[in-house]
Each structure stands twice: as C-alpha cells, then as structure tokens.
From TrEMBL:
Family: Belongs to the TRAFAC class myosin-kinesin ATPase superfamily. Kinesin family.
PROSITE patterns, alphabetized: KINESIN_MOTOR_1, KINESIN_MOTOR_2
Organism phylogeny: Eukaryota, Metazoa, Chordata, Craniata, Vertebrata
Pfam (any one): FHA
UniProt keyword annotations, A-Z: ATP-binding, Coiled coil, Cytoplasm, Cytoskeleton, Microtubule, Motor protein, Nucleotide-binding
Record SMART domains: KISc (SM00129)
Matching InterPro entries: FHA_dom, Kinesin_assoc, Kinesin_motor_CS, Kinesin_motor_dom, Kinesin_motor_dom_sf, P-loop_NTPase, SMAD_FHA_dom_sf
Name used for this protein in its record: Kinesin-like protein
Positions contributing to ATP binding: G101, Q102, T103, G104, S105, G106, K107, T108
Source organism of this protein record: Eptatretus burgeri (Inshore hagfish)
Length: 552
C-alpha cells in the first residue's frame, strides 16, 4: 500500500500579470506553501494570522523567479518526479503522474517535458534484459475519447469506448499503440498528439487545452528468471488535465458546453478523491471534521462553476456524512475517472502535481487547487509488481524454502543436510545411506534423517527402508505406527496408496515411486496430508526419504 504523493509547482507570473503589477501572494518552502488573502488582510478587525493559510505537501517547487536559489526548472522536476515514475516502472509497477490545476497554471508546460524513458533505458540497460516501449495518446473531449495518434487510419473525430479488463484494469478499445524504437520517435509522436489536441482561447490562456490528455507508455522488460522466460509489464500514465474556469456567458455555446463537460469530470474526480480519502481515513480512523469541511468548501468552489450534477450523486453523501461503511467511489460517473481508476486507489504508484499561479488575481482558484491537492494526499493505492505469475510462484517457493531452512536452523541440531540452495539440489546432494531413512523426535541424541515433533513420536520412532523399490516400514518396539488404520508392530511392506500414521499427529499418503513413475506422477514418496500447512516427504534418487514438511 502506498499513499498518493502530492507535489505543487508555482509558475512564474505571466506577462500580463507582470504588466499589471498584480501582487504575489505565495510563500513557497520545500514542503509547504503559505497563501495570503489580501482581501482579508485589508479588513480592519481581522485576527493577525487569519489572512494566511498554510498547506503541507510532499514537495513544493517554486518556478517564480529563475534567479532565486530555490528556482525549480523543468530539469529539476524531471529529475525528481519523472525519475520517481520511471523508477517505479523499472521495478514493474504501474505509475501515474497527474497534473491538476487552473487553466494557464503550467500543467501542459510541465508535463510535456516529462518522458525521458529512453535515456534511462540506455543507462539502465542490462544485456540480459530486452525492453519494449509502446505509447498511446488520447484525449477526453466532451466526455468522448479520441485517439490523438490515430493518423489517417482512424478519423480523429470518432469516439472510442472505454472498457474494463478484470485483471489489466480499464482500457480504451481500439486505441492505437505505437512501438517506439528511439527517443526521437517518442518526441515526434508527442508533438503529433499535441498538435491534434483540442485547444481554444479562454480568458486566462490563449491556447487553453480544452480536453484531458492521457499519454500512456507501455513498458515491457523481458528476461530469463530461473530459466523461465519472464515479462514484467508496467503502464505509465502521464495525465494533463484540462483546467477549470468559470464559464463566461460571453463565450459561444460550444465553449460553454466544453467548460461544463470539463467541470463535470473534474467534479467527479473531486468526488472520487474525496470518497477515497474518506475511505482511507475510515481505515486509519483519524478523521477530523475540519478536514471534511475544508474539502466540502473546495467541492462547492468547483461545483459553483459546474453544471448541475447529472449522476444524482449528492454532495452531502460524499463529504458530509460519517459512517462506518466505506463510501461508494463514483469512478463510473465520468470517462476521466473510469480511465484513472488504477491511478486513484488501485494498482499504481501515483503522483499528483498541482500547478498554481503566484498572483493574487488567481486567489480563489489557487485555494481550490491547494485544497484538492491536500485531500489527494490521503488516498491509499495498492501498487503491485506486474510480473509473470510463474516467476512469482517460484520466488515465493524459494522464500518458503528459506523460511523452512531458518526454522530448521533455529529448531536444534537435528538437521543433517547442509542448507541446500533449492529442492532439486536437496534431493541430489544428500548422502547415500543404502536406502534407509531414520525417523524420530528432536529431543534425543540419536542421529536421525527426519525429525518430527513430540509428543507421541519416540526419540527413535521407525525406519523406512527402500530396497530396489520395495519399501518397508520398520517400527521401533513401543512406537505408534499404523498403516491403513492397522497398528504395525513388526517390519511391514508398504504399498502404493497406503495411509501411514506416525504417533498421533503425522499422517502420510504413500506413493510407490516406481508406480508413481509409471503413472507419470512426481516422485513423492510420502505426502504429509494432515498437518497444516501440508508438507511432503520426498524420495531422492539415492533412495533417501527427505521431509519437507513446514512444521516438523
Ligand atoms: P495549462 O496547461 O495549465 O493550461 P500551460 O502549461 O499551457 O497551462 O501554461 C500557460 C502558460 O504559462 C504557457 O505560456 C507556459 O509557457 C507558461 N508557463 C507555465 N508554467 C511555466 C513555468 N514553470 N515556467 C515558464 N513558463 C511557464
Ligand atoms: Mg494545458
């Protein structure tokens, strides 16, 4: 489990802001941002600190003044945030970097400099691993998904469907994927996609992105592990959201419609973040009503600019209630949140980058963005390495063997074999003892091959002898041994399928290896079927029986 990381970047004042000498209201530190409310400051009877609000984040970047010592350039952001995303991808996690903020606050500016995966591949390249990079680029415009890289194959105007794969998560049906062999190819495709994006002039930004854009890198690493071909596939989502702004009644109908749809998905995104944050707080049960109120204010800010909610999802049901049940998370209320399901609360390591303007003219939007971002910090994701299931099983088995070895080492001196590297070695490297395997409990001083736990197991309990495939149980007088429910007092031959009980707690199923081989079963001599977790007695090629039971 990993919390969503939240970073904030403050852009430099725009030319217009410089020209009109708009005051700057932000004080940016490495991990916090203080914002001044100039209107409140002017009030005569305002309390001394009531005009300043402070927010803490994982990282804050000031790009206000290029000459300042703490100036954060594109390179700084790439080195810190971009590299975190790429590191996660190289390990095999899905990763997402989401830029959120008011129109003209620097989302697109920051995101377009992000991909740099090829330079990393060059530096990280191992000769044993091969890499494949495929990219896709889409926009969500007026709640419809369009392929920005479809070229002439698919008309850019046709909308694509969002579907959900039970294991791989949400995906867009028919979205083109482009294999990119070199770094220059990726840059070319990004430029092509950006040129195809829907932009328009708004009152804050002449070329505002009117759509949400998701640039996805499908990154496959293939190599050999345990002599098995293994693929680790990770998906990197770089998301440039459209900015929200108040609908200007002087704009044409298309612009107002666009704004409504942008706000609808941003409100849904807010609802999703809110529900997830509330759920994670429920599980940690450290909620303060102050947080909830702050967040409710924020949603109200956004909603005041948005059309009436169409989903019937009431605000109070999201942020106002306190219940012991987890909230419903309304992913399906917008295309954007459906596609970002894995990035928010799912299988991905996610960074939210909030971009803001430093000027007083953007006070309310900046406040809203900061509250949004502060809330996103409490979302908990569940990233996992997307590795081959076979390789995972082998690794887990190895870990289990290591655990058993540790148990054996700590449980006393009755371990005869030196700790082998794996089961196959364990079977092949053991000493030959003429097919005789001694079994007893660990308290005695007898040299035993298999040590079982008392009570009801004698110090030297019995011997299992294997001569050319004929296996005989030789009980020590007085020890509790039975085959198929019949007590055994004298040497007795065991047949394929017999149930052997030693003491009161150990029950084994006996497979004759010769017959097992004939029926193509693995050469398991005695399968331990009663103790939990189940264990095995296995027969090595030199006829010794080896106990692999976890709780012997
Ligand atoms: P958004 O995508 O949030 O609507 P843009 O990224 O298009 O905003 O940025 C708006 C304008 O501000 C652009 O002209 C861009 O060059 C400028 N800008 C944004 N952030 C920065 C920055 N950190 N440094 C310099 N210029 C910036
Ligand atoms: Mg933009």
């Amino acid at each position: 489990m990993a919390n969503v990381k939240v970073a904030v970047r403050v852009r430099p004042p725009s030319q217009k802001e410089v020209r009109t000498a708009v005051p700057l209201i932000l004080d940016v530190k490495e991990k916090s941002i203080a914002i001044r409310n100039l209107k409140q400051q002017r009030l005569k009877f305002a309390a001394p600190n009531s005009s300043v609000a402070e927010f803490a984040f994982d990282r804050c970047y000031s790009s206000i003044d290029p000459n300042a010592p703490d100036y954060a350039s594109q390179e700084t952001l790439f080195n810190e945030l971009g590299n975190q995303v790429l590191d996660a991808a190289f390990i095999g996690f899905n990763a997402s970097l989401l830029a959120y903020g008011q129109t003209g606050s620097g989302k697109t500016y920051t995101m377009v400099g992000t991909p740099g995966i090829f330079s990393r591949i060059k530096s990280e390249c191992k000769s044993s691993t091969s890499y494949k990079v495929e990219i896709s680029f889409l926009e969500i415009y007026n709640e419809q998904v369009r392929d920005l890289l479809a070229g002439r194959v698919q008309k850019r105007t046709s909308a694509l469907r969002v579907r959900e794969h039970p294991k791989k998560g949400p995906y867009v049906q028919g979205l083109s994927r482009h294999v990119v062999p070199t770094c220059s190819h990726i840059a070319e495709l990004i430029e092509q996609g950006i040129a195809n994006r829907t932009t328009a002039a708004t009152y804050v930004h002449d070329a505002s992105s009117r759509s949400h854009a998701i640039f996805t890198i499908h990154f496959t690493q293939a190599n050999l592990q345990e002599n098995l071909p293994c693929e680790v596939i990770s998906k990197l989502n770089l998301v440039d959201l459209a900015g929200s702004e108040r609908a200007d009644p002087n704009f044409c109908r298309t612009r107002i419609m666009e704004g409504a749809n942008i706000n609808r998905s941003l409100v849904t995104l807010g609802n999703v973040i809110s529900a997830l944050a509330e759920n994670s707080m429920l599980s940690t049960s450290c909620v303060g009503s102050q947080h909830v109120n702050l967040w409710r204010d924020n949603i109200s800010d956004t909603i005041s600019q948005a059309p009436p909610a169409t989903s019937g999802y009431s605000l109070s049901s999201i942020s106002g209630r306190r219940s012991s049940h987890p909230c419903y998370v309304p992913y399906r209320d917008s295309v954007l949140t459906r596609l970002l399901k894995d990035s928010l609360g799912g299988n991905a390591k996610t960074i939210v980058l909030a971009t803001i303007s430093p000027s007083s003219s953007s006070f309310s939007e900046t406040m809203s963005t900061l509250r949004y971002a502060a809330r996103a910090k409490s979302i908990v994701n569940r990233p996992r390495v997307n590795e081959d299931p076979n390789v995972r099983i082998i690794r887990e088995l190895r870990q289990e063997v290591e655990r058993l070895k540790d148990l054996l080492r700590n449980s006393g001196p009755k371990v005869l074999n030196p700790p082998p590297n794996n089961l196959i070695e364990m079977l092949h490297n053991s000493d030959t003892k003429d097919g005789k395997t001694t079994i007893g409990c660990s308290q005695g001083s007898v040299d035993l091959d298999i040590v079982l736990e008392p009570p009801s197991i004698e110090e030297f309990h019995c011997t299992v002898e294997n001569q050319a495939g004929v296996v005989t149980l030789i009980p020590k007088p007085g020890s509790m041994c039975s085959i198929n429910g019949r007590p055994i007092l004298h040497p007795c031959q065991m047949n394929h399928g017999d149930i052997l009980v030693l003491g009161e707690n150990y029950t084994f199923h006996f497979n004759n290896p010769v017959e097992a081989k004939k029926s193509r079963n693995p050469p398991i001599l005695l399968q331990h079927i009663q103790k939990n977790p189940p264990g095995f007695l296995e027969l090595s090629e030199d006829s010794r029986v080896i106990d692999l039971s976890p709780n012997r």
